[in-house]
């Protein structure tokens, strides 16, 4: 389970450290993919495999499944850490997420999210404002 929020600076080569407490879990590498809210999702290979398998067993029509597979898998990158525990964020993902020099890595249960700091502050404010409302609707079910 990934928890917490960690501030970093992107270096001149587009690399960002991964929080040390997460590195053991990500020792086999990380799969990066664009997230829906203009951030980058980072999955362990095991979680990525689970996601892939759940898509294969889905009930979507074949044309929708092809579109979903194209959107997810064609934009994904598999990376490993360098000797200093950093990953190089691919330029297409940095551009998609609007990531500048200040980066925030957040835990999101089974995956990580990588955000531009300004965009993260906006999203965090919105998410916190809605979180308890969402929890209350879950409790009724």
Description:
It is a single chain. The protein is built from 5 helices and 8 strands. It has a single domain (5-139), classed as Transcriptional regulator MraZ domain (Chemotaxis protein chec, 3-Layer(aba) Sandwich), CATH 3.40.1550.20. The protein is of the alpha+beta class and 141 residues long. The chain is globular, with a radius of gyration of 16 Å. The strands form 2 sheets. Strands 1-7-8-4-3-5 form a 6-stranded antiparallel beta sheet. Strands 2-6 form a two-stranded antiparallel ribbon.
In a nutshell, what does this entry contain?
This protein has helices at 20-23, 45-56, 62-73, 91-97, 117-139; strands at 5-9, 15-17, 30-34, 40-43, 77-79, 86-88, 102-107, 112-116. With 141 residues, the chain is of the alpha+beta class.
How many DSSP-defined strands? 8
Rg calculated over all Cα atoms: 16 Å
Can you give the mean pLDDT?
91
CATH topology call: Chemotaxis protein chec
List the secondary-structure elements in sequence, H or E.
EEHEEHHEEHEEH
Low-confidence parts: none
- Hey, roughly how much beta strand do the residues contain? 15-25%
**Structure annotation, total helices:** 5
Shape: globular
Whole-number count of domains: 1
CATH superfamily: Transcriptional regulator MraZ domain
- In spatial order, strands of the major sheet run 1-7-8-4-3-5
